[in-house]
Amino acid sequence: MNDYFEREAKFHMHTYGRLPILFTRGEGPFLFDEDGKKYIDFLCGLGVTSVGHAHPKLVAAIKEQAEKLLHTSNIFYTSPQIDLAEKLVNISFADKVFFANSGAEANEGAVKLARKYSKMHKGEERYEIITALKSFHGRTMKMLAATGQPDKQKPFEPMPIGFKHVPLNDFAALKEMISEKSCAIMLEAIQGEGGVNPCEKDYLKAVRSLCDEMDLIFILDEVQTGIGRTGELFAYELYDIEPDIMTLAKGLGGGLPVGALLAKEELAAAFSPGDHGSTFGGNPVVCAAALAVLDIIDKEGLLESCKNISFKINERLTEISKVAPITEIRGAGLMIGLELSKPIAKGVVNACLERGLIINAIGDTTLRFLPPLIIDEGLANEALDIFEDVMKNLSEEEKAN
Ligand code: PLP
Predict the structure, then answer these.
(1) pLDDT tens per residue across span 387-397
(2) Rg of the chain (C-alpha set)
(3) Is residue 26's pLDDT more than 70?
(4) How deeply is 355 buried, as exposed, middle or buried, from its count of CB atoms within 10 A (0-12, 13-18, 19+)?
(5) pLDDT tens digits for 349-373?
(6) Crossing angle of helices 79-91/284-299, nearest 10°?
């Protein structure tokens, strides 16, 4: 038995409440631990490995680029970065792209861009960003301030100024919050870490119209919802709207760290050389990986298959909810949240893990499934057999875990 548990506790800062498993290998929709035990990965490293583990095309693209060129900095041109920027522009509403290394960083860039544009065109005082309660935008200080979860902010106060929060799907509250200081509204189309809470369609459309009316910038954080997770390439397509700025990360790199900030031309033009940058952002290897991910999604018809499997999973979960303490099934595509009537989420996660299924708990009463887009119906059913069995037979001891 490896002593990883003790060594991690000794050498790594205690920032994660980790589950006691050491994974050594991944293949398609499966992860394998150090003893070779196989797990169905219904979490994808928190929505990242959407095309599965070690997809041969993704591995080949990374290898090929790593053998040619790993890094130059952004003082110079590299072709995978330009190819990926062009690709993202061609498949989205946006005209320009900037690359970061994570979701939080992409969001930092979005806020900087919105503030600079507002300053240039609307005056010094319009800097406030309105976000939603229960949102999650990242762990940097500014994104913590943007995140509408006071318990996460408390230990690090004082927070950077300029962020206001309103309840999601409450249009009146949002309107009320707008002042002469407002610069932008920033939302997740479906809140991820906050509990898989979708924006209502009318709400998001009304927010779009309100931004137009009040001359506000509309930022969509698609770090979790983007790159096919909801069955569309971007969640805004589900709502028949377009944002002014969008951020991506997670699924884009297929497992390598990449973030992207996308904007319409008029906004993007607010950035001049020296305004924003990143040593690693848009590195040739991660861009080659992202290009491969987008190609795999396209060539393997993963958006269509995501919608089909999502439908089957939801049908099955509806059946399971008749015999298990599930009160609500939320989300879109393969971003699925389950509300439980009892505080047993962590016990369910542990019991599933024991039986070879990886799912996620958000708090005590919410479960989250983020299976890979490559999953087929047979494996989805196998995973749901485990889940159903756990939900029906959870012992008192397991419920308490
Ligand atoms: N935005 C959303 C919607 C997220 O779900 C996350 C991470 O879960 C982030 C931002 C932060 O991304 P990262 O952890 O890559 O900084």
Answers:
(1) 999 999 876 65
(2) 21
(3) yes
(4) middle
(5) 999 999 999 999 999 999 999 999 9
(6) 40
Which of 318, 219, 325 is CA-nearest to residue 262? 219
109 Cβ inside 6 Å of ligand 1: no
Give the integer Cα–Cα distance in Å for 118 and 113.
8
CA triple 352-357-362, angle to 5 deg: 65
Q: Which of 51, 25, 50, 49 is nearest to 39 (CA)?
A: 25
Q: Based on the number of CB atoms within 10 Å of its own CB, is 219 exposed (0-12), middle (13-18) or buried (19 or more)?
A: buried
Residue 374: closest CA among 25, 55, 31, 62? 55
Report which secondary-structure segment, H or E, holds 190: strand 190-191
Catalytic residue status for 250: yes
Does residue 1 carry a pLDDT above 60? Answer: no
Length, in residues, of the chain: 401
Beta bridge partners of 41: 358
Helix (H) or strand (E) holding 247: strand 245-248
| Residue 389 is a catalytic residue | no
Choosing from 96, 134, 142, 250, the catalytic residue is 250
Q: For 43-97, how does the pLDDT look when each residue is reduced to its tens digit (9 = 90+)?
A: 999 999 999 999 999 999 999 999 999 999 999 999 999 999 999 999 999 999 9
Rounded to two decimals, what is the model's pTM? Answer: 0.97
- DSSP classification of residue 149: -
- CA-188 nearest atom, ligand 1: 3
How far, in Å, CA of 377 to CA of 360, rounded?
Answer: 20
Helices (H) and strands (E) in the chain, counts: 15, 17
Other residues' Cβ atoms within 10 Å of the Cβ of residue 357: 23
